[in-house]
């Protein structure tokens, strides 16, 4: 039984990898950016757990900045994806401009929260 579960997991991983390899390069770059933002947030949480959270506003600002940026990048990925029919009339340049503007607003709020 354990042997078939392992084989099923390997088959699933291979199927996901082959499907993801057909993903356009611009979406893969956005995926890497999302993973980087989430990884940076996790590093900050681990650091806070090990060292402490004395300037708690700084910790919250850093983590919320990373998470907010990741969410905005996921929104950009959804809008730029050619297979998504909901945003077919939206130009990629417009989606990127929205991403940049929302990031600017997000980081202005984060800077304001820092004090």
Automatic annotation (TrEMBL):
Subcellular location as annotated: Endoplasmic reticulum membrane
Domain of life of the source = Eukaryota
Q: How does it sit in the membrane?
A: Multi-pass membrane protein
Function, as annotated, reads: Subunit of the oligosaccharyl transferase (OST) complex that catalyzes the initial transfer of a defined glycan (Glc(3)Man(9)GlcNAc(2) in eukaryotes) from the lipid carrier dolichol-pyrophosphate to an asparagine residue within an Asn-X-Ser/Thr consensus motif in nascent polypeptide chains, the first step in protein N-glycosylation. N-glycosylation occurs cotranslationally and the complex associates with the Sec61 complex at the channel-forming translocon complex that mediates protein translocation across the endoplasmic reticulum (ER). All subunits are required for a maximal enzyme activity.
What's one GO BP annotation on this UniProt entry? Answer: protein N-linked glycosylation
The subunit structure is: Component of the oligosaccharyltransferase (OST) complex.
Q: Name one GO cellular component term.
A: oligosaccharyltransferase complex
Q: What is this protein called?
A: Dolichyl-diphosphooligosaccharide--protein glycosyltransferase subunit DAD1
Task: Note whether Metal-binding occurs among the keywords.
Answer: no
Keywords for this protein = Apoptosis, Endoplasmic reticulum, Membrane, Transmembrane, Transmembrane helix
Q: Which InterPro entries match?
A: DAD/Ost2
Q: In which pathway does it act?
A: Protein modification; protein glycosylation
Task: Note one Pfam family from the annotation.
Answer: DAD
Transmembrane feature ranges? 32-50, 56-76, 96-114
The UniProt similarity line reads: Belongs to the DAD/OST2 family.
């Amino acid at each position: 039984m354990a042997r078939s579960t392992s084989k099923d997991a390997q088959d699933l991983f291979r199927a996901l990898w082959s499907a993801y390899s057909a993903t356009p390069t611009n979406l893969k770059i956005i995926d890497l950016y999302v993973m980087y933002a989430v990884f940076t947030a996790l590093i900050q949480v681990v650091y806070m757990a090990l060292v402490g959270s004395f300037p708690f506003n700084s910790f919250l600002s850093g983590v919320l900045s990373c998470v907010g940026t990741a969410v905005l990048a996921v929104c950009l990925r959804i809008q730029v994806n050619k297979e998504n029919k909901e945003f077919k009339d939206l130009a990629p340049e417009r989606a990127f401009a929205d991403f940049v503007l929302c990031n600017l607003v997000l980081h202005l709020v984060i800077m304001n929260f820092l004090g």
